[in-house]
Design goal:
Belongs to the polypeptide deformylase family. InterPro entries: Peptide_deformylase, Peptide_deformylase_sf. One of its GO terms (molecular function) is peptide deformylase activity. There is one protein chain. By secondary structure, the protein is α+β, with helices and mostly antiparallel strands. The chain is globular, with a radius of gyration of 16 Å.
Length: about 190
Amino acid sequence: MILPIVAYGSQVLREVSQDITPDYPGLQTLIDNMWETMYASSGVGLAAPQINKPIRLFVIDSEQIINNLEEDEVNAYPGDLGIKQVFINARIVDTEGEEWPYQEGCLSIPKIREDVYRPEKVTIRYVDENFKEHEKTFHGITARVIFHEYDHIEGKLFIDYLKPLKKRLLKSRLDDISKGKIKVDYKMTFAK
């Protein structure tokens, strides 16, 4: 089932999410719905707060990015083949490498894309949908998507990394999003 995406301005996007246990009600259905919602919205990642669930759960499919690189971009992320993965109760263990810019966007903040600087690598501890524990290091565009979705479960948004002047310049557009004065080709819910 395709779920509505929560728009900028909704309180749930600013909450630090809670851990869940294997007996979380309807977990597999929720994960399936998140995948379906993410793909229907043309996203590469989706965090539970974006569907109004303040829990530490996100899904990413960075294979989509890697598989659709232009010919001149093929060598941009050496060794990064992309992943399709569920992350539950994730915690960042370490970051390393130079910070690099990439124009990020967000399904909860439609029609705004801005350069955000993030480190090259992230080491993250998490459990998968079977609650099997993992600790892995990711780099390149996959690390970027993980950082972005991880921020959602920490109550942060990519616009929080922008300089104050840039945020002021975006204020009216952000206000329009929070008031529902935008059109997107996927279901959204707006702050009341």
